């Protein structure tokens, strides 16, 4: 499971994030975060959530089973994908296909209306000059 | 000291809090998506920890695998939306994209 996590995140999501960061230039004058008031408020909120969850986590008597030896999980996971989890497996593949098509359509250049890409290009060019100056 | 279930739960709680803080404070849409990834990973840690210590089966692993799949799909669509937003507005700041307000 840990190896799956590493493979998916390094192979997929990190590459996606890096591409997006490269393709969307952040202007220098833009603030990366919100103002200090929002930051304090958000920090208090997040700390409150963490405190409540910590209280719940440490205060509950979990129904822990006696610790068995860590068994090899890969074969079992593969078998379950094909038997009892077959429908969620197929459904997840469908979701991935839909996400892939949706992302491709979203980032496709719009060719139906010639004005809009030109305007966007001009805007981007102006943006470039702004960044360079 | 042996590592027990509570330690895993505490780690995932901290991860969840950091994710919420990132989602709230970031103005960059990519940063917000990364915060959402943190939250999903906190949930994944919980699933696997419970599968190891309480259920002693593989169902938690299966659910975690599906969560990873959905997180990947969500990241793909979200980052595509960010790219489209940058193409149309020239920015990735979430509070400057407010055309629906006007």
Short description:
Chain A is mainly α and 133 residues long. Chain A has 5 helices and no strands. Chain B has helices at residues 5-25, 29-55, 59-89.
Write the layout of secondary structure elements.
The complex is a heterodimer of chains A (133) and B (102).
Chain A: H1 2-23, H2 36-59, H3 74-82, H4 86-106, H5 115-132
Chain B: H1 5-25, H2 29-55, H3 59-89
Helix pairs in contact in B: 1-2, 2-3
Structure notes:
The complex is a heterodimer of chains A (133) and B (102). Mean pLDDT of chain A is 71; it is low at 114-127. Chain A has 133 residues and is an all-alpha fold. Chain A contains five helices and no strands. With 102 residues, chain B is an all-alpha fold. The longest helix of chain B is centred in the C-terminal third of the chain and has 31 residues, at 59-89. The relative contact order of chain B is 0.14. The mean pLDDT of chain B is 83. Chains A and B meet through helix 1, helix 2, helix 3, helix 4 and helix 5 of A and helix 1, helix 2 and helix 3 of B.
């Amino acid at each position: 499971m840990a190896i799956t996590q590493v493979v998916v995140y390094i192979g997929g999501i990190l590459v996606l994030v890096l591409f997006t960061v490269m393709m969307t230039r952040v202007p220098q004058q833009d603030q990366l975060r919100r103002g200090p008031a929002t930051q304090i408020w958000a920090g208090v909120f997040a700390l409150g959530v963490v405190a409540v969850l910590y209280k719940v986590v440490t205060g509950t008597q979990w129904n822990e089973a006696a610790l068995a030896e860590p068994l090899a999980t890969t074969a079992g996971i593969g078998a379950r994908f094909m038997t009892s989890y077959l429908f969620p497996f197929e459904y997840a593949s469908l979701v991935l296909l839909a996400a892939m098509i949706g992302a491709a359509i979203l980032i496709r250049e719009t060719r139906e209306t010639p004005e809009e890409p030109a305007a966007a290009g001009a805007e981007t060019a102006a943006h470039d000059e702004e960044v360079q100056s | 000291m042996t590592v027990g279930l509570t330690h895993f739960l505490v780690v995932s709680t901290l991860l969840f809090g950091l994710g919420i803080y990132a989602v709230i404070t970031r103005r960059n849409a990519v940063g917000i998506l990364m915060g959402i990834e943190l939250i999903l990973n906190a949930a994944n840690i919980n699933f696997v920890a419970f599968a190891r210590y309480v259920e002693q089966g593989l169902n938690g692993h299966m659910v975690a695998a599906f969560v990873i799949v959905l997180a990947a799909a969500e990241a793909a669509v979200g980052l595509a939306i960010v790219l489209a937003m940058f193409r149309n507005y020239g920015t990735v700041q979430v509070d400057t994209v407010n055309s629906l307000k006007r």
